[in-house]
Structures are given as structure tokens and as C-alpha cells.
Amino acid sequence: MLESIQSKITAKSRKIKVRRFSTIAVSLLAVFALGITMMQMGAFTKESNIVSIVAVDINPSIELSVDANSVVVRVKPMNKDARSLDYKSLVGLSAEEATLKIIEMATEAGFIDPEDLEEDYVLVTTVNVDEEEEEETEELNERLKDIIENGGELPDVNVVVMKAEKIAWFEANDKKVPLGMYVINGMVQHDGVWYTAGEFFSNPENKKNYEKKNELLVRKADKTIGLLDRFLDRLEGDDIDVAALRTRLETEGEDLDALRLDIKALWEATYGDEEGIDGNGKPKGKPENPGNPND
Q1: Which of 34, 38, 181, 292 has minimal Cβ neighbours within 10 Å of its Cβ?
Q2: Helix ranges, the chain (H)
Q3: Are the CB atoms for 107 and 114 separated by under 8 Å?
């Protein structure tokens, strides 16, 4: 009987050891996999002159490697849509110029449609990859904010500028998720489904919380007003009463996001599937000859 008890104890002890070994092995494999990813990205071999990463996520998503002079020295297209753009032409530009050019190329390719009533989002995320040059990355982040707010010809888009830690960059690459999406998805609870920027910010609570915590959420208000005015002109031309909406548009301080949704609802109710909305839920039959949005 004693031998039987000892055998059971020995067997149980072996099972515990096996479980512990399995847990340790899985943990080591995870660390090893992350280490391989980090090595591939140059984490342990200080890559020549790269100081900062600038990830521009629209869909397409493009990653810029930037030196201490804020010049783009390498460009990595992160998805199929990005590979369809002339991304190689970004090498040699300043990080600021390259960021604006990506937005321009995405607009020309139709990924951003400045003439519909859907909100478009551009995520611009900076990462410092050289601890000795952390100040340069901070300054680059500020210059990106400044040029987006005050300079450059941007379409009517929301531009979000944010910072991320190097580990988030590693993890995003390991999961094959664009960095900007990885960062904003870390702000919410979800069931394994990755939110796009549009989906994330369509929730007013997410948008409000983000604006409190983070650096920048920019909408070019003058261009939004011009766009909404053209849609109202089209509706008015079809004898639709838009007087109340136009009064709101002309009211200083009006919530343009809410007004946009109300105009979109009227547009859909008026035109429906006949000519108002395409297969992606976006308005079509847009006003011709839009002209200068500031006119």
C-alpha cells in the first residue's frame, strides 16, 4: 500500500514538472519570437543613422525611417495598398514633406475622398529608436503637428498625431498590424477585432477621451464648410428645403461633425440608391466643379 501511495506521489510530481516545463517553454518561445522580430528591425544592432520612425496610416500604411536631420532614409510599405503608391519617391524628403506627400498620393489614388460626406482619418505616429536622439524625435513630433495645423495643402481629413514607445512598434510589426491602428486599439476593449481609425473615432466617447489624452486631432474647418455648402447647394437645386441646415452652417461655433451627419442623412433620404449612395455607403452624384473650398 505504501508503495502504491509513493507511486501516485511520484506520478503527480512528474505531471507538475511537465506542466511547469511546458509553461516555461511557451514563455521562452514567445520571448524568442519577439527577439527575432526585434533583431530583424535592428533593435540590437544600432542601425546606422535611423533616429525616428514615422508611421502614416490611412490605409494605405507606410513606415518612414528618419535620420537625425529628419530626412527619410528608408520607406517600408506596410500593406498591399501602400505598395500601389510611388513610395520610393519619399526617400530623401524631409519627414514632414514625406508625410504630406503620402496624404496627397492617397487622395489622388482614391483612398481619401475629399468630396464625400464620410470622415477620413490619417494617423501619424512617431517612435524614437535611438535613446541618444530622443529630443530630435520630440522636435520632429512638434514640427509634424505644426505643418499639419498651419501649413501644407491638406484635403478635408482628420489628422491624428501621436507618439508610441519602441516596444509598441515591435509588437505591431510582430502582429502585422499598422502601428497607428495598434496604438488606438490599445485604448479600447475589443474581442479580437481590429478597429480602423474611422470605426474608433466614430464612437463619440472614444473621440472625446482621445482629445483629452493626446496631442492633436485636426480637421480643416474651412474645407469642411466648403464641402457641406456644396452638398446643400445640390439639395437646394433639387428644391429640397435646407434653410435650417444652411443657418447652422453659417453659425460660428457650430458642431460641424453633427451637421455633417444631418446633411448626410438628408442626402440619403433624398437620393437613396438612385444616385445618392454608392455600394460603400458613400454619396455619389457629387456636385460638379467643386472649385476652391474657400470660395
Answers
A1: 292
A2: 2-40, 80-83, 95-108, 134-150, 166-174, 179-185, 197-201, 204-213, 221-237, 243-249, 256-271
A3: yes
Closest by alpha carbon to 88, among 102, 103, 107, 108?
A: 102
pTM exceeds 0.90, yes or no: no
Is residue 170 within 8 Å of 183, Cβ to Cβ?
no
Structural element, H or E, at residue 84: none
Q: Which residue has the cell 501511495?
A: 5
What digits encode the pLDDT tens for the residues 1-19? 545 555 555 555 555 555 5
Cβ(186)–Cβ(168) under 8 Å? Answer: yes
- Assign 279 a pLDDT band (cuts: 50, 70, 90): very low
Output Rg (C-alpha) for the chain, integer angstroms.
25
Which three cell numbers mark 113?
A: 475622398
Distant-in-sequence, close-in-space partners of 37: CB < 8 Å, separation ≥ 6: 170, 173, 174
Whole-number percent of the chain with pLDDT over 70: 70
Rounded to 5 degrees, φ, ψ at 121 are: -125, 140
Question: Do residues 106 and 121 lie in contact, with contact meaning Cβ atoms separated by under 8 Å?
Answer: no
Which of 171, 192, 191 shows the shortest CA–CA distance to 182? 171
| Helix orientation angle between 2-40 and 166-174, rounded to the nearest 10 degrees | 100
Beta-bridge partner residues of 163: 126
For residue 266, CA distances in Å to 230, 255, 263, 278 come to 14, 17, 5, 15
